[in-house]
Amino acid sequence: MISTIIGVIVGVIVAIPLTIIATKKFLRPRNEKIYYSLTLIPIALIYVGFSYYYGELSALRAEIIGVIIFTVLALLAQFMASWILVYAYLGHGLWDLFHEIFMTGIGDGIAWTQVPPGYAAFCLVYDVIIAVYVYKRQKLWVIDSQV
Length: 147
What we know:
Helix content is 81%, strand content 0%. The protein has helices spanning 2-26, 29-53, 60-79, 83-103, 119-146.
């Protein structure tokens, strides 16, 4: 329980002051879109690393499929429509939640990668905050890319 609370707090801290405020300050809106699109790829890739770290190679196929899905969504969002990025981050938040739920025994029989305590809460909070921010900024990204 305490690890979940810490994960939530760290998720808020990483999302708002360390990501949103920093990108808003140092990147043009058009470059923000690129940043948030490309950032989706390594955050999906982290689960492949966890799979190797915890020795759960049976879950590797699911994790690689997840990386492929989020990479495709990130590229579609970058080159087609920004709203896809909102759903991609929300989808990644669900991916995090599923890891937490299924690793606690509810999803026996399904190979899921173990994650450190509190990580799923951290990532879920981060993903939801970023999704809301992307939703609010996408109109500005369109205007800036036309200039």
